[in-house]
Amino acid sequence: MFQSAMAPISLPHFSHQPHRWNKATSCWDPISGGVRRWPGVSNPQSFSRLGPSTRSVCLFDVLVWVESWLSPCSRDRLKSVSKNFAFGSLYSGLWLTRPWMPIRRRLYGSGASTLKRHCSHETPHLDGVIHFAWIFLTPGERKCAVTAFSAWRLYAYLRRDACRLSLSPLQAARGVKIPNKLSRQRALLHSVALLRFDFQYSDLVRWLGKEYTNRDCDWAPSAEAKARNAYDNHPAVDEAQEKVEEKFAKEEWKAYHIHFLRFLYAFIPGLMINPIQWIFDKGKGRLCIDCTNGPDPSGSANTYIPKPGTPERLDECPPVWYQYAFKRLLRHIYRLRRTKPGAPLLVHADDIEAAFRRVLYHPDLAVAFAYVFNDFVIVPVGQVFGSRSAPSYYCLLADIRQVIAAMSEFADDPSEYDPLVKGCTFSTSEDPVLA
């Protein structure tokens, strides 16, 4: 038997490690790590899925990009070429690709994916199938579905917008002026980006980066998402619509949450809808996300979060020590007065704006704390006021902040002081108020 000699197989070296920091150049060094990588996952919604052996690209595949350059007369003539062109670009393949391949950010950086931390539904919503069925249907079948069902119609127009709209405004710097209305255009861009990431919210957050991930600067299923969407929010929100929207607009400007078109609640895997409560306290309106109540207990996030300090589940909800904060403050003042009876004591009331919001959710779990308002479904970036675990996780950071403030030394150069420190003034005279 004849056997041909085969050359030994040698695979090229691939590195999936992130680039290493070069101290000499103060930048990331692409040579020392992550030079050559295995190809990323394919784009299931792109034309390349069909492969070169199936068929080549035709005019109907790119009609959504060509159509805007044609005159009305040319469009009418094009409809008589074939039956597909008579349907128009809305019912074409509308091929899409992801803004980037998400594999690397899933493995490294903020919010790395793990098997023990995820949100999912055992019974997915039927509308979620639309996205994956679209590429397998003919133009005629798509038109029939769009005509018969509102979810198909909304999805078709959103998919066409995803082919035409640029996502660059989402990466641009925010304007200086804080808006008082939620931007529908920005919600549309968020929705388009979410669709291009196959409705994987965590991949969208990792792509946005910056304030959403602090980069550079097992849930039980709920079949009641539809009922909670119909329930909307608590009555106090309806009575203060303008103030609530102004509050949301300000928070969105600060990148505290991401809002999408409301009908997409059924497309996002693992999403839970929590009612909004509006509380007016001490002359200030506050947003509270009610993660405890609603039409059904199984659809509330707090149902699955243990109480603070529960043994064997401390990582899910650490202990809270706020109840002893005032007692510790009085004890500290008493000790200072006993040790230094003649020295003035300066007591500074330190308040942090949106304290809970500064503790960011893992991108894979943020959808469990979502809420709806008017035409939008909103997913928080940081912790919401109303989650059972929010005080626990902030308590950890507050204690660390207190220790650092007590142990750190002032900088020798006053120009390096924080603006908050520079803004503190007090009298050096023997003022009885200071004593």
Walk me through what this model shows.
The model is unreliable at 11-18, 32-39 and 217-222 (pLDDT under 50). The protein is mainly alpha-helical and 435 residues long. The strands form three sheets. It has a three-stranded antiparallel sheet with strand order 3-7-6. The N and C termini lie far apart (103 Å). It has helices at residues 63-66, 72-79, 83-87, 103-107, 130-133, 139-148, 150-164, 168-171, 184-196, 201-208, 225-231, 235-238, 241-253, 325-339, 390-407, 419-422, and strands at 20-22, 27-29, 257-261, 276-281, 284-289, 371-373, 376-380. It contains 16 helices and seven strands.
In short:
The chain has 435 residues and is mostly helical. The chain has a domain at 180-422.
What attributes characterize this protein structure?
single chain, 435 residues, mainly alpha, three-stranded antiparallel β-sheet, two-stranded antiparallel sheet, 16 helices, elongated
Secondary-structure topology with pairs:
Layout: E1 20-22, E2 27-29, H1 63-66, H2 72-79, H3 83-87, H4 103-107, H5 130-133, H6 139-148, H7 150-164, H8 168-171, H9 184-196, H10 201-208, H11 225-231, H12 235-238, H13 241-253, E3 257-261, E4 276-281, E5 284-289, H14 325-339, E6 371-373, E7 376-380, H15 390-407, H16 419-422
Antiparallel strand pairs: 1-2, 3-7, 4-5, 6-7
Helix pairs in contact: 6-7, 7-9
